[in-house]
Amino acid sequence: MPSTFVEEDFPRGGRKVISSQKRSNPENNLFTTDNNKKSKKSKKVKKTQKEAVTEDVFYDSLNVLGTLSYSKIQEGMIILGCVRHVTNFSLEVELPGLTFGSVHVTNVSDAFTTYLSSTLEKAEEDSENLLKQMFQIGQFVIVKVLNIENEERGTKLKCSLKPSDINYEKSHNSFVKGMLVWGCVRSVLEHGYEISLGVKNCRVFLPLKNVETPLLIGQPMWCVVHKSEITNSVATLRVSSKTQHIKDSQVDKINSLHDVIPGMKIEIVTDKVTSNGIQGKFLNDYFAYVDHTQLRSPLDELDVYSEGNLLKAVVLYIEPSTKITHFTLRDVDPVPAPQHKVGDVLSAKVISKAPNGIYLRLLPSKEKCFVTNRRLIQALSKKSDSDLPEAITAKFPIGSKLTCRILDYNHISRMYVCAVDQALVNEKLFSNKDVTIGQLLNLTVDIVKAEGIVVTSGHIRGFVPNLHVSNAEFSENLKKKFKPGDKVNGRVLHVQDDNIIFTLKSGLVQSEKCLTSLEEAKRGSQYPGVVVKTKPAGAMVVFYNNIVGWLSKRRLDVANSDAEVNPTEYFYRGQVINPWVLGVKGDKVALTLKAPHSLKKQINMKVGQRVKGFVSKIYKDRVAVKSVRGLMLGIVPVHHLSSLPLCAAVLKEKALAAKAGTLGRKYKIRKFEDLKPGNVLRCSYISTSELGIYVLPLISDFASSVLIKNADIVDDGQPTPKFAKDQSIIAKILRINYDTKDLDLTIKQNKVFDNNVETVVTYFNQYLSEIQYLRDFGYNHGWDICQYRPGERIMCKVKVLDKGGCLVTLPNNVTGLVARHLCPDNLQQGQLIEGVFLCQDFKENYAEVCLRHDISQKINPIQDGVISITSLASSMTEKILVKNDFILGVLKQNGGRKQLVYIPSHLTVNDRIGCHSFYKKQKFKTCICGKVNSYLVGISKTLFLTLDKQVSLIQRRLLTNIQNLDTNQSCITQTDTNESEEALSANGSSQNEVSSEEEEETVRDTVLESTDSVNEEKSEDESFENDSNSSGVCGTKRKRHEIGHGKNIKFGDETIKKFANSDSITGPLPVLPGVSTFFNPGTNDDNVASSDEEEEQREVTKKKVKLTPKERAKLAREEEERLSKIEKELADSTTEPKSVEQFERLLVANPNSSEYWSRYISFHAAATDLDKARSVAKRALETIDMTFIDDKFNIWITMLNMENMFGTKDSFENTFNEAIKYNDPLKIYLQAITLLSNSEKYSEMEEKIKKVRSKYKHEPTMWLEVAKIYYLINKFKEARNIKEAALKSIQDRKTQLNIIIRFAIMEFKYGEEQQGAAIFETVLSADPKKVTVWITYVDQLVKKNRIEQARKVLERSVCQQLPLKSMKTLFLKFKMFEEQHGTPDSIEAVKQKAAEFVSKAVKK
Q: Which keywords has UniProt assigned to this entry (predicted)?
């Protein structure tokens, strides 16, 4: 490079100083060929011409520099790059000129680094894939070169995408409308995104309407400025990130090259076309260059461009020395994936030559390819004596055809990088796709590392971990026998991303048996594996392709089976063993060391296969099942017997007397390929992790566990529920990947189930069917708890009295529980009293009983579910009992016949919260939804109105078939839960619909082959029920979209509304009787439209007529107690006010309380009623007495906080100006600065800091508080600058020392410990006599748990020669320190040092 290439000779952009320069003047044209004209110029003009870029220099720079290369790249350069590869922690980017750089995850953006840290702390699974979600291969980005490292294998560039690095030379007033800017998402707002440009005092907003796809926090991107409001102190920008807006943006004017960033579109004028590119100018004064590799198309020729052409180009980079801007004529749209893959062998034709290689055109695709000189030399004959360029020209003349192999694809230049060496072209092992798991290869040792050995075979490279170096237990001596160049045999263990892992273990290499997939793991087969982990319970064995197996301790083949074997001693890590396969469970293989002939015979079954067998044995948590021939099939966990938990009661000890019966249950199990997003699956719970829960979906050809993330289990803020082993869970498919067989599931109630009545009733119907089955089963098998029916009167003996109720004993010695509100007054232990049996609790094995006579009279002894209420949609119900799974109420109307109503307390099986909030009142209106056996099912009217009432086609089909089934079959083996899952699917898609014949067959096949005898008792009105089925709920005589209910019939002397009994169904229950007329405008039922208050008032009015004097007195007492309670609540100041009246009443009693006034202001502000909040604040300032200065000050701070949070900048400034008039201005300033920093309004905060520094620069408090604020927002540099400014403004030495010490303490507390320690050391070195400084220094170190460092500081302090009083203080501090953090020996050592010091002082 000529000596004139110094930066002083090249002002930015080559801008000439002569202001009258015009492009039409030939004297100003640097490319003119007339160099003979010379003219005398003044000294000043000569200086100007020296600073200008001359024509010769420009040409020389182009000839020398050309396109970009590693030798031309300098630190600090900003370059347009293209994403080449994305990992979890870094990006690899392509740069012009076949150069590459890497971007670490912490150099993407500051906002992304903060966001990533928070997600990693929360252990969110997505945190590992954020970069892959944010970037795609072929995407263009802007990078800044941070560091250049030259190594043996090449040059490494460390780059950054941070907007603060890209825009480091810009200020807030650099951005104008229409400019392309580089920024990142700082935060997500309600109506858009807050963007950070890395420039101070610059606020940027990206509206949602200007966004095409959702953005992640920290995501860097290009934006176009649509609106710019710039003042002297701050700039407010509104931008757009839409692709079309970015394409349309074009720069027409700039102040300097500082305003130009890569990716900008600018028009350039062609001045000259050379053999290597195009030279030109842009915006009149700046030089441009387009390399021949950056033309519109890779196959374009330079001869299509001529002088004077106006070209639209995109900035690539700016050369630091010459200030020449390099352009590309292509857009920055993401580059599509290449047509050919790496490793493909293709024919090509030589089309041109370059100094560093040749260019080819691939055939027949006609895409461009480049071969470097290094690759060409390898293809030349070793006997060639000619000059290298001549040899290349002779070997590869233009127009010749040859065979090449693709090595890479460069997105920046849109061309392939190839090799023509025949040895490489014919190489069989070129890439990872050329090897298979378990393949035996001859390997060459390349590098021996601490972690293992790098090996090569052909063109591929792999790695051998230390664990797989040898069959023997690993030690470092084993690797010493391997030298670079050694040949060894190895097998491909597995391929992970782009890495191939080999094994050299002879036990694996010499065996031809390779377990590479779970499908190969057949029972009884034997494969070699490696022990990777041992536990007392067994050993973990790994096979090829990371197939994991578990060898249980009891499956070890030892000589003495009675001996206790510890697998941790039996195996060593890395040992090769040859176990047999027992089976596959989930994604793991069960193993054994026992010979196959010792294994029990078992039927080979596939996942999802339907089998039939007998219950051979019953356990507490499962049942064992055998086939008809007596072969072992497996076990059925208790949670798989039903979707509800009640079936566990059947497996209690009392149920073991049941004979082993046939187990037949028919599910429609789908294949993976038939699944679609929105389908509902039944899953089995496996385990819980920090990321979520693992479940096993019931899919026929799928045996892997699936992680359901925490975000898909419950909503934010809700606790994660606990699950039991093998518990059945209903999940919905969110996303599905058919290639990798990956599923994303959710079990959120609002995602899985429809918010409709049918879903709620379906779930509760299954529950009640199980209750009925358990009652019948227990009654037939002599369970004492099942000998009573709901409503039955029984004599009870009081056993235990407690505040929460009492325990009673029933006649057959069954324990009964009586809730507190169901116990009468003056109850005594041992008393015999009549009670009403309400229900059984099968989980805890006790009965629920009511002993209160007034409540018992409201319950009919005959609970048959027969009622004659005309208004089924609005039935008054009184709450009797609240259980975990349901609420028991009793109908109050005469037509209700005192029947009990069962109300679900959970909407669905996945509902973990429940709906108890709808049943807080003792009396409420209920919609009677139907009847299951003799149980009336109801839902709160308020809840009913919030639910959907639609019935899908498949649900009606299922109901039509089910109405003909018997009503008293077992829910445990009867319910076709798979079909109910389809009915509950949210999308209701057509693929879930089946024909009526298939549904009927499915439902009927679910009935047990041998049923109980509970069907013998039939209703007297069975004939009517059959009639109602044919013309009622889902009868064919009604219209398909219409849903009705049974007819009124005569029963004795009264008219009764009769329901059709419902079986445990596979879809939703018949929609509520009366629902078809519930919202009908033409209904004549006035009671439906009446309010709860009116009905209650009518009932109270009726009762008042019948009240006795005793009852009236009781009511009067209750009313008096109620009023007294209200008065006490009003008088209690600790009660949180919830209305304006309550606040006003509270402030009348406490007019000077700033706390109550502030809460009143916040009450209105929270309701977004700022005018009322401001009015209350003014009242507070006028009302509070002038002597309560602090309370008035608190109100002003509350007003400032309100305006900062909800008001505008002007309203905040007006309030602030008023506040400083009536309060200490410094305090107001400091409080305002704190509020602004807490709300991250840093530009406004800096304005206030600037003012307060100029007004109160002699106040130490101001400097300390401002510094503290800077420390709290992690602006350590600004905080330390405050210290220096404070020491310059305050001249008092003592005050200066106090400030220094306070800053040291703040460094320890909020900043960097090393900096704080350095401040203390500086002070002590200057004045070691400051005892208080020594003690403060030690205290700060102790707070940071720097015990040893604090001990050393104390040892230094007591080695000084200070006055006796000072030394005494230091020794006492030392002693107290050792008593808290030392040992008895260290304490004695301190005492000894003190004694020695005293003795020396006395001698003196």
A: Nucleus, Repeat, rRNA processing
